[in-house]
Amino acid sequence: MSYSGEEKKQEAMSGIAHRLARPNILELHPYRCARDDYSSGILLDANENALGPTSLPTNSLEPYDNHNVLERYPDPYQIALKEKYAQYRGHGLKPENIFVGVGSDEAIDLLMRIFCRPGQDNILTTPPTYGMYKVCAKVNDVQVINCPLTPDFDLRINEMLDAATAETKLMFVCSPGNPTSKAIPLEDVEKLASSSRYDGIIVVDEAYVDFSPKGSAVSLVSKHPNIVVLQTLSKAFGLAGIRCGFAIGAPDVIQLMNNVKAPYNVNSLTSEVAINAMANIATLEKNVATLLEQREVVANALSRLEFVTTVYPSDANFILFRVDKNAKEIYKRMADGGVVTRYRGTEMHCDECIRVTVGTAEENKTFLERLAQTYNELA
Hints:
Elements: H1 5-14, H2 16-20, H3 23-26, E1 42-43, H4 79-89, E2 98-101, H5 103-115, E3 122-125, H6 132-139, E4 143-146, H7 157-163, E5 168-174, H8 186-194, E6 201-205, E7 227-232, E8 245-248, H9 251-260, H10 268-278, H11 281-303, E9 308-311, E10 318-323, H12 327-336, E11 339-340, E12 342-343, E13 353-357, H13 361-378
C-alpha cells in the first residue's frame, strides 16, 4: 500500500510521534546537508577535499589480520589518538584537553546539552554562519540570539557583548566562517574571552583552520579556560567519510563532555584511520598547498568574469562570490548539468551569492567553463 505526500503528512500529524514529542522537536527544520540535494557529478558543494584522504585503513584482508580486535568495544576515551593529535597541534596540549567525537557536530550538541538549560538559556551566533548551531539549539530547546556579522564579515564585538544576557552560555564564532570563508582575528576572540561583560564560553569552530594563515585559537586555550575550539578531520585531512572531530578546551570542560557522550562514540576503524593520518602530515601539507594554489586560480578567474561582482577573500577551501543576477537559477542549472555548487543567496549579506569548493584542477576548469556558459544561457 502506497501513501501520497498529503496522506503521509496527515499520518505524521496524528501519529504517536506527533502526540508525544517535545514541541520544539515538532517545530524543527532539520539541517539540510549538501547530499540532500545532489549526490553525483562534479561535487563542489560540501567543502570536501577533492584531492583525497590523508590516510587509509590498514590492509587487513591479505593476509587476514584482525589487529583492530573488532569483536571488542573501542577505547571509550581514544587516548592514543588524543596523544597524537595533541602532539600535532602543539601549544602544550595534553589528552585531557581533547574530546574526540563524531565530527564537530557531536561536540556542538554536547556543549548545548551540558551548559544550556532547556527553555531557559540561550546561545549567541553571528550570521551568516554554520546552520547546525541553530538546529542543535532547537533540538535542545535553547533560544538563539543573532548578532550579525558586518557586511565585510567581521565580528561586531561590542554588539555581541551588549546582546549577551546572563543566560547566554555559549557564543559561537565560526573561523574561518561558513559561508563567509573569512577567518576571525585571534585578537577578536581574545577580546570576547577576556571581557568582564560576558562570563560564558566562547566556542571557536575551526573546521577550515588548516587553510588559513591566521593561526588557531588553540593557542589561547591555556590562557583562557572559557575558550573551546572545534576542529575536524573532514576538510584539510580529506577524511569526511570517517566522521572524526575534536573539541579542545580546559580539562574540566572536556571531562564533562566525556561524562555525557555515548560510551563508545568513536569506532575502532575511524580511530585507526585518524591515527594513521597523524603519521602522514606530509600528505596533508602537500594537499593543502595544492588546494591553496587552485584557490588562487579560481579566485582570479572569477574576478575576470564581468558578471561576477564580488569575489570574497578566502581563508578556507572554498570561495564565496556574487553574481549580478540569477544566482539561484545558475546554481540549479549547473547542478542539474553535473557541476554542483551551493546557493547561499538566502543568507544574510549573501544576496546573489554562490559558494564553490575548490576542487581538482580539472574540476575547477570545468566549473569555470560551465559557470560562464550557464550565465550566458540565462542572460
